[in-house]
Amino acid sequence: MSTTDLVLPVFEQTGAYLHGHFRLTSGLHSPAYLQCAKVLQYPAHAEALGRALAIRFREMSHGEAIPLVTSPAVGGLIIGHEVARSLGARFQFTERDAAGKMTLRRGFEVDAGETAVVVEDVITTGGSTREVIDLLRDYGVKVLAAGSIIDRSGGHADVGVPRAALATLSVTSWAPELCPLCREGSVAVKPGSRNAG
Ligand code: ZN
Predict the structure, then answer these.
(1) Which of 76, 13, 88 is nearest to 44 (CA)?
(2) CA-CA 20 to 30 A from 58: which of 38, 90, 163, 180?
């Protein structure tokens, strides 16, 4: 059984696997959306998913210690924290400054030469994870791997380091002018809005 088979039922049970007609951040339309926050509202699920990702990172590190987990806020906060708990690592998060640049704030410090993993809730293009990796490398941190609960890229996102995901999906999506749901007369909604799903 793959971890995808284990993870998707948890999304279904918690109402986090939304079925309907959605307008994604990319502008594409899709019949399905995974809302990680709805799973992670349950600390027991968050802990279990974090532990599963931590196991993957331990396999990838071949026994090398991983003292630091870094996540981009807001999406990566809860799952990154749970991965760090399971690894016995500390947890930090990055935020964007006014110019949109990924930064470490709040007095967070890293040591040149220490090893880290980068964790997000969902990887689509891998853009945010790549920005966090670049930032850590600027400080001399060695980024061992990156991970997410969901990989929405079908495994194609390349972040320049080995990657782990608990569920890898190729979610159907269409350009609005080609969307069959629009053609049937339904209106696409932003995931998470009140009438979604
Ligand atoms: Zn549509």
Answers:
(1) 13
(2) 38
Q: 45-49, 117-121, 141-145, 188-192: lowest mean pLDDT where?
A: 188-192
- Write the CB contacts of 14 (distance below 8 Å, at least 6 apart in sequence): 38, 39, 41, 42, 45
In Å, how far are 4, 31, 34, 35 from 78, measured between CA atoms? 20, 26, 16, 13
129 CA to centre of ligand 1 in angstroms: 28
Question: Distance, CA 177 to ligand 1 centroid (Å)?
Answer: 8
Q: What is the pTM of this model?
A: 0.90
- The verdict on residue 189 lying in a domain is no
Q: Would the pLDDT of 146 be above 50?
A: yes
Q: With contact defined as beta carbons under 8 Å apart, do 69 and 116 qualify?
A: yes
In a domain, 157, yes or no: yes
Cα 64 to Cα 70, 136, 190: the distances in Å are 17, 18, 42
CA 179 – ligand 1 centroid, Å: 4
Is 196 a member of any domain? no
Full domain range(s) for residue 129: 3-183
Looking up tokens 């853009």 gives 127
Does residue 29 carry a pLDDT above 90? yes
Number of structural domains in the chain: 1
Asked if the structure places residue 179 within a domain, the reply is: yes
